[in-house]
């Protein structure tokens, strides 16, 4: 192909090595002037056009729209040629595209609008309907008018084509600003890692069924899953005090109490009120407190002092249907436990396949304080307590 000129993917940035082929503005066999855009390329940061290296015909397309190409890769060829006579429309020579479909035809300029590109199919519709190109809002790259734009204009008219395009700016609430600041702080200052395990919820579900009526009759509240996980978390925190500690300068500050934050959705965003001395609370105490937090969070009645001073956090994405997530530590805490949805899954039980209600649990921890071994063992301790709740009573 000595007479062929390569269309090459140009360098587009130091960190970008690969791009996607967007829209070919010209079809094979179509004449284009030098520096006229022939194809759009897309990176993860921007979209940009590649101009024709010479005046001539596009003779071969090697990469179709939607495919990837590396920087410097040849994606097509051109043959130098003079512009066709003005009274003779250019004819496209049929050229194979290596088993790929030819790209879109060259955009033509409407006689009624020399400043905009109008795709050939759109131009035909405009000519048939008598609508000037200037009356149609183009939605293609660089404002190009597509046949869909003309069809929508003919059907709805310019006033109904796109509907409302209003925007509204609302100041961040103080709670939302605090949430944003805490999340960014955690990502920037802590060495966060997440370890995951799964829990068979059969035993807990059976206990709830067995005692739900008597529990509610005695304490005036339903027995939920959160009290089991808080009790299991407290037990594990007492076994692994580093996960209940915080980093203070060059010192590790250990707590001889467990102030467990419970993440609940509020009217103005997620809030994390704290169960003070959770190690002293019964199942009923925890259920009452969590229920109270949830109700007052929806009414935006959580007090500021109830959000301060937690040593560890428990969050339950399962109430929203989450299968698995990686929760973010709430600084200056060193760990957060993520609960998730309970779904029936087949697992191996005593060498046989059984369908059990399973939950993924995740612990995100600050690796500056907590070693991986302790984090994994901590999570396994919670798993064992939930799968055999008698451990919480016997403290074994």
Present the secondary structure layout.
Blueprint: E1 5-8, E2 18-24, E3 31-32, E4 37-42, E5 47-51, E6 56-61, E7 68-70, E8 74-80, E9 108-110, E10 113-118, H1 120-129, H2 147-156, H3 174-189, E11 192-200, H4 202-219, H5 226-239, E12 246-248, E13 251-253, E14 260-266, E15 269-271, E16 274-275, H6 283-298, E17 312-316, E18 335-339, E19 342-349, E20 352-366, H7 372-387, H8 390-394
Parallel strand pairs: 14-17, 17-18
Antiparallel strand pairs: 1-8, 2-4, 2-7, 3-6, 4-5, 6-8, 9-10, 11-20, 12-13, 14-15, 14-16, 18-20, 19-20
Helix pairs in contact: 1-2, 5-6, 5-7
What does this 3D model show about the protein?
The protein has 396 residues and is of the alpha+beta class. The protein has helices at residues 120-129, 147-156, 174-189, 202-219, 226-239, 283-298, 372-387, 390-394, and strands at residues 5-8, 18-24, 31-32, 37-42, 47-51, 56-61, 68-70, 74-80, 108-110, 113-118, 192-200, 246-248, 251-253, 260-266, 269-271, 274-275, 312-316, 335-339, 342-349, 352-366. The protein is built from 8 helices and 20 strands. Helix 1 packs parallel to helix 2 and helix 5 (226-239) packs across helix 6. The termini are far apart. The relative contact order is 0.10.
Instruction: Label the overall shape.
Output: elongated
- Percent in strands: 25-35%
Q: Summarize the helix and strand pattern as letters.
A: EEEEEEEEEEHHHEHHEEEEEHEEEEHH
Total number of β-strand segments?
20
Distance separating the two termini: 79 Å
- Stretches where pLDDT falls below 50 for ≥5 residues? 91-99, 101-115
Q: State the helix count.
A: 8
**Cα-atom radius of gyration:** 32 Å
Percent of residues in helices comes to 25-40%
Largest sheet: 8 strands, mixed
By secondary-structure content and strand pairing, the structural class works out as alpha+beta
Overall average pLDDT: 84
